[in-house]
Amino acid sequence: EAQVTQNPRYLITVTGKKLTVTCSQNMNHEYMSWYRQDPGLGLRQIYYSMNVEVTDKGDVPEGYKVSRKEKRNFPLILESPSPNQTSLYFCASSTGTSGRGEQYFGPGTRLTVT
Amino acid sequence: EDKVVQSPLSLVVHEGDTVTLNCSYEVTNFRSLLWYKQEKKAPTFLFMLTSSGIEKKSGRLSSILDKKELFSILNITATQTGDSAVYLCAGQGAQKLVFGQGTRLTINP
Predict the structure, then answer these.
(1) Disulfide-capable partner of A36 in A17, A87, B36, B46 (CB 3.0 to 4.6 Å)?
(2) Contact present, B24 and B70 (Cβ < 8 Å)
(3) Contact call for residues B91 and B33 (beta carbons, < 8 A)
């Protein structure tokens, strides 16, 4: 089944404790992206990747890192999480080059930083 | 700065009504406009619009894009309680997708 998977689905952590949210897709998509969703603000792009070893900042990259060492995986790293990073996070991959076309979303990761 | 604005932010109607959701956009190097439906989980794809004036339909849902006026509408006819959700529109630029805040649609029986 074609899908985007994320882990963990739920995470409660403390300020400053490094964490990684994994994202994997099995559709051989070149473009992958991370979003955060907050009430009243919609989905905002954090980082995106157009291909292996090619990543770029979205609209809200501060406090996040990403890597794209393999085509299927695009982990999101929070080196020193803070409470303002409490949010619902979605990973997505796209059928089109440069992100054009339908984006397939993962199930989401709800992160709480205390 | 790129932006996508949806209206209304919230809408409550009765089952059977027809609704129109609005989306205006200002996106650099605009390529397409996408609509998604989000229930209590990840957004699911509805439509992608690239050409002005060509309506896309899927059952009771339809959508159209006006590239001159920079807006799109999503119509839902004969609404059902299962249509209750947040509807998101997004403008696709050269490399990124910019989302609106969403319209929360509630269908009362």
Answers:
(1) A87
(2) yes
(3) yes
